[in-house]
């Protein structure tokens, strides 16, 4: 059995609905910035795109497209304070243990054990909608997040995609 080509399958699907071919992002190089200090001295933040929202926030739209919303998450929040609103992946395991998609407790353990220096005061949940507006991400949303990470003194961002 041949593996499914995601790119071809998604292109075929949307072209069948009358949309033009999607212009996929192709990166020919990736910037690499080595850590300037040992991991045990670094401040870490985290971003999940798994559609999790704190119970005090409006839930994410589970079928959203181009949802560039980004929620701040207090690093001391309890995993039981979140709900998952995403229909594009199987959320059963994440509903049993939030750490599957947002390893907040594992991050705290790493800080407690001295593996990382500290946890930033804000963690992040967002960018969960199928995002087709690349220019807005590249020119606005990602730089805005970068500024917030700098404001929090973050040395390393852990990305947890859904």
Question: How would you describe what is shown here?
Answer:
The chain is an alpha/beta fold. It has helices at 6-16, 92-96, 104-112, 134-151, and strands at 43-48, 52-54, 70-74, 82-84, 118-119, 122-126, 156-160. Strands 1, 3, 5, 6 and 7 form a five-stranded mixed sheet that branches. A two-stranded antiparallel sheet has the order 2-4.
End-to-end gap: 26 Å
Classification by helices and strands:
alpha/beta
The description of the largest β-sheet is: 5 strands, mixed
Please estimate the helix content.
25-40%
What would you call the shape?
globular
What Rg do the Cα atoms give? Answer: 17 Å
Task: Give helix and strand order, one letter per element, not per position.
Answer: HEEEEHHEEHE
Number of helical segments with 4 or more residues: 4
Low-confidence stretches: none
| Mean pLDDT value | 90
Overall number of structural domains: 1
Question: How many β-strands, per DSSP?
Answer: 7
Strand content: 15-25%
């Amino acid at each position: 059995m041949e593996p499914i080509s995601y790119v071809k399958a998604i292109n075929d699907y949307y072209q069948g609905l009358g949309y033009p071919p999607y212009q996929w992002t192709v990166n020919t190089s990736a910037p690499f910035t080595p850590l300037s200090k040992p991991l045990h001295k670094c401040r870490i933040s985290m971003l999940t795109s798994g559609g999790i929202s704190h119970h005090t926030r409006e839930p994410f739209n589970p079928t959203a497209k181009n949802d560039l919303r980004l929620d701040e998450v207090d690093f001391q929040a309890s995993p039981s304070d979140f709900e998952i609103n995403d229909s594009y992946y199987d959320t059963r395991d994440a509903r049993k243990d939030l750490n599957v998609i947002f390893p907040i407790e594992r991050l705290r353990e790493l800080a407690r054990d001295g593996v990382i220096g500290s946890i930033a005061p804000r963690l992040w949940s967002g960018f969960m909608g199928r995002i087709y507006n690349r220019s807005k991400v590249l020119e606005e949303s990602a730089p805005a997040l970068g500024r917030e990470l700098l404001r929090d003194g973050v040395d390393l961002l852990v990305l947890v995609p859904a």
